[in-house]
Amino acid sequence: MMKNTIVLIFVLLISSLQACEQSTANREPQVVINYDQKVKEGALSVAYFASGCFWCVEAIYQSLKGVKEAVSGYSGGQSENPRYENVSRGSTQHAEAVQVFYDPNQIDFETLVKVFFASHDPTTPNQQGPDRGPQYRSIAFYTNAMEMSIIESVVRDLEESSTYDAPIVTEIKEFQKFWEAEDYHQEYEQNHPNNPYVRNVSIPRLNRFKEKFPELLKDNH
User: Fold this and answer.
1) pLDDT tens digits, one per residue of 175-201
2) pLDDT at 128 over 60
3) Which residues on adjacent β-strands are paired with residue 132?
4) Secondary structure class of 95 (helix, strand, coil)
């Protein structure tokens, strides 16, 4: 009886291993896209924005048609190799920022800028919602004169239309360098939907944006 049991266990183990190997063999290989290379080739463009917690901002840009990837990171300061522990203390002058890779044939820079202003409060210095400190300040980065002109034009239109009750304090800043944040910050909202901050701050902010601009959303959003 014991021998038969051992044989049965052995057969089940072999079958399980074979099934696992077959499943692995049938699995589609993960395609790793070099977005920086796509930009160099002219297939994609890239833009940079800071408007509070990068978990929120990344999710907003990821939802847009024409945006291929959004990466959380740090920009706007002087410190080399900033890490979350230092940035979160406000000691690096970097802001939590997002790098947005997009197809200019599907969505243009001006639309990205309008999304930037429509998805946060650009009138609160060093603050966005419950988050306070210079790392949460509002910055629209430009990489050339045309982008700077577009940002300035959007700000001017917003001010002339009295969209906000207070002055816009967004920095219009020449882009210098983007430092990618730690892996655990990437796609944080998607990977941690039950996180209290995500549930109470990030998701409501994303949903408010979606209600304003349903025509800009990807089909799966």
Assistant:
1) 999 999 999 999 999 999 999 999 999
2) yes
3) 127
4) strand
CA–CA gap between residue 201 and residue 199 (Å, rounded):
6
Q: Is 84 helix (H, G, I), strand (E, B) or coil?
A: helix
Q: Where are the domains of the chain?
A: 42-216
Domain 42-216 part of CATH 2.60.120.280: no
Rounded Cα distance between 76 and 66, Å, is 25
182, burial (CB in 10 Å: exposed 0-12, middle 13-18, buried 19+) = exposed
Residues 37-94 pLDDT 10s = 888 888 899 999 999 999 999 999 999 999 999 999 999 998 999 999 999 998 899 9
What span, in angstroms and rounded, lies between the C-alpha atoms of 54 and 116?
A: 12
Runs of H (alpha helix) within 84-217: 84-87, 109-118, 145-160, 188-191, 196-197, 203-212
**How far are the Cα atoms of 16, 53, 158, 211 from residue 99, in angstroms, in the given order?**
43, 13, 24, 23
Active-site positions read 53
pLDDT for res 6: 37
Which positions ≥6 away from 192 have C-beta within 8 Å?
198
d(CA 141, CA 153): 14
